[in-house]
Amino acid sequence: MNTKFLEKEFDYLKPATLNGALEILAEKPNVKVFAGGTDLIVKCKTGAPVDMDYMLDINAIDELKAIASGDDGRLELFTNAKLSTIEKDERVIKDYPALAAAIRAMASVSVRNMASIGGNFCNASPVADAVGPVMCYKGVLRLLSKRGEREVAAEDFFLAPGVSVLEKDELFHAISLPAPAANTGSAFIKLGRVKSDIAKISITVVIERDDERIADCRIAMGSIAAKPLLVADIGQSLAGKAVTQKLIDATASEISAFIKPIDDNRTTAEYRTDVAKVIAQDAIAAAWKASGGKL
Amino acid sequence: MSMHEITIKVNGKPRRLAVKSNELLLNVLRDKLFMTGAKYGCGIAECGACTILKDGKSVMSCLVPAVAADGWDITTPEGLADGGTLSHVQQAFIDHAAIQCGFCTPGMVVASTALLNENPDPDEEYVRDYLRGNYCRCTGYVAMVSAVLDAAQRMKAE
Lengths: 295, 158
Ligand SMILES: Cc1cc2nc3c(=O)[nH]c(=O)nc-3n(C[C@H](O)[C@H](O)[C@H](O)COP(=O)(O)OP(=O)(O)OC[C@H]3O[C@@H](n4cnc5c(N)ncnc54)[C@H](O)[C@@H]3O)c2cc1C
Ligand code: FES
Ligand code: FES
Prior knowledge:
- By secondary structure, chain A is of the alpha+beta class.
- Chain A folds into 3 domains: about 45 residues, 2-Layer Sandwich (Uridine Diphospho-n-acetylenolpyruvylglucosamine Reductase, domain 2), CATH 3.30.43; about 110 residues, Uridine Diphospho-n-acetylenolpyruvylglucosamine Reductase, domain 3, CATH 3.30.465.10; about 110 residues, Enolase-like, domain 1 (2-Layer Sandwich), CATH 3.30.390.50.
- In chain B, a hairpin with a 2-residue loop joins strand 1 and strand 2.
- Flavin-adenine dinucleotide (FAD) sits at the interface of chains A and B.
């Protein structure tokens, strides 16, 4: 494996405007967007198949780097907002702490200075760490092309490893996060071999509390299927229930029985199944406490 | 494959270059500008040997297409010292014997400089976490961590 040179040949385009980028996507064949390059260039160097005749650098388009407050208290993370900017954003830290935690658990500072949030989605890896929190916070993804804009719920974006619903002429535009309800608590847990590792398994839990009971619960997991997964039914089944250790244990067992992990070079399916239960117990308890609930 | 004229400010000096779309910033620094401070280790952003500063923040130059660095203001390991005077981080690495074979040292010193740009008063945990993207096969990191903490003190005393 030669990681010293980029053997691949391609033309490089750096439009100054969003419209310019959309035109290139609409008109040219085999265009790959270059945001931070921390997935794209690694793939090119390590010989993964990448259909790229044109590299479309979006870094001259300032509006794509923004984090902006939207209508109804929503937060809009534009695609090329760098991970290191998002993890330090006061609004993210306050309202979406599991997202800040997931990003801090990724890679290293230097990689996070380069990498974008949109790249983490578009790469469509089952281990993508920023995805679980966005799913649990009910994030909506905005996809833009010359044909117009469409919105897709974060959990409907992924199809298979490396494959999403993004069409060839579409730009991943932004992630729109709704304002969290009062008494919302969340937790993110990732297990790796060392701190900067890709996850062996990860879990996000976001709970909306109504007094002693759960009003709503969203649970997402990474590295346990062919795509990042919202474990929707199990989360929803908790609505209206009073939280006890017994409920937490039963839910964690259900999650462990539900997931269908594989053996790979990071760990085994058996380990993932066993440990899913433990991190689910911890994450549900932590999210409940963060919502102000008592255990 | 397209060719591009780019201008990069390297250690304060604008450099004009013609690069192919698939040339990497690390290779351009080393092979065209003969600045061999930044090292090639893994080539895929895992080891930190190629760390440079962009606007004072650390990035891995092995993953940056040189053409994408047009207009950047970067600092390489060569740019840390002020003439013959080493930076506090460089001097502290020497004083703490935080160097063995030295291969990781340029990247480590650059990343530590970025760390102190961001947080002039770090604790040990912060330093260990911040430097987790820079690998050293020799030192065991202990001396490096104390060098960075000491450099922070020296900067404050200044
Ligand atoms: C050493 C190292 C450690 C890492 N550790 C982790 C980790 O712990 N967890 C984790 O989840 N990831 C990790 N990653 C992967 C990577 O850093 C993230 O997925 C990152 O968010 C990718 O963002 P980027 O801007 O660099 O993407 P790029 O490489 O620029 O793009 C990734 C893909 O998405 C496409 N794309 C990007 N933006 C758009 C857009 N707006 N519209 C359409 N297509 C687009 C690109 O064409 C490309 O195919 C690691 C990478 C490295 C090198
Ligand atoms: S050579 Fe760039 S991080 Fe290893
Ligand atoms: S001193 Fe040898 S790799 Fe760090």
